[in-house]
Amino acid sequence: MTQSVDMTVLPALQAELASATNQLLATAASLSDADAAAPSLLPGWTRGHVLAHLARNADSYVNLLTWAKTGVRTPQYTSHEARRAGIDASATRPAARLLADVEDGAARFAAAVRDVPAHAWAAPVEGMRPPPHPAWYVLVRRLREVGIHHVDLAAGYGPADWPEPFVRRELHDLRLCWSREHSTVSEIVLREGAPDGGERAATWPGLGHGPAVTGTPRDMLAWLTGRSGGQGVSLLPAGQSHAPGPGGVDLPEPPPWLSMTAPAVLPATPPKDYP
CA-based, 20 to 30 A from 154: which of 2, 34, 117, 168? Predict the structure, then answer.
């Protein structure tokens, strides 16, 4: 039986990606040559490295969409060495050329998305690491790259600027990919203000060994992805339901992030309630 992607989810992901890409390009356009050569938030990488990675990443996802469309295995990258070489070859370019590279990569990816037949979004593809995943999840992975690495540019865009759907979806998938074996916390309590002035909470129990931590979804995602030092995240002593003290105090190191490129089991088409 031919399967096709849920036609309410796919356009929503495409629209979110278009908005995130436009914001990224606006930030990139604001950088001077000196800005591009300055350090990013990623150790050992300049802002130029981050922009070069985003350009090459777009091309790598074109490869995966080509695989889905044609049925011919097309690796995301030919090798880890080729991935690094592609980034290094572009990272020292002037800011204007880096901007053009990111723009061109984004345009190629958008064209590839438009060219995927509806049935092919359910086709299995695979990145540099397992597990395989349906092609529709390539859109989620690209959104992740754009949203996280935009923060890494350290150029005025931070976790506070992440759209709420991005935060909700990333936390959802992060939990699905959780490695209990390598966890540094036992429980996460997500809190946010409710319209009635109170708080509503979502609890992730049974995560592994370590303390319980609490914070808003946005602050928690920033900490879990290594994009903050734990501001807004607090230890939650056993038996207490309210966050104590200032965030970031005596927190453990966050557990490893992105141990998997996708949840182990994804439906061939995204469910209608997919975050």
Answer: 168
Which runs of E-coded beta strand occur in the chain? 124-125, 133-134, 187-193, 199-204, 212-215, 234-236
Question: Which residues of the chain does CATH 1.20.120.450 include?
Answer: 9-157
| pLDDT for the residue 198 | 62
- The two counts, helices (H) then strands (E), for the chain are 8, 6
Check pLDDT > 50 for residue 219. Answer: yes
CATH fold of 9-157: Four Helix Bundle (Hemerythrin (Met), subunit A) (1.20.120)
Banded pLDDT at 76 (limits 50, 70, 90): very high
Structure tokens, 168 = 């909700």
88: closest CA among 37, 53, 60?
Answer: 53
Cα(20)–Cα(109) distance, integer angstroms: 14
Phi, psi of 33 (to 5 degrees): -60, -40
Percent of the chain with pLDDT over 70: 91
Give the pLDDT confidence score for residue 98 in this predicted structure: 98
- Count of alpha carbons within 13 Å of 204, Cβ hemisphere only? 27
Give the separation between CA 166 and CA 175, rounded to whole angstroms: 14
CA atoms of 49 and 147, how far apart (whole Å): 16
Amino acid 249: pLDDT? 59
Total number of residues shown for the chain: 275
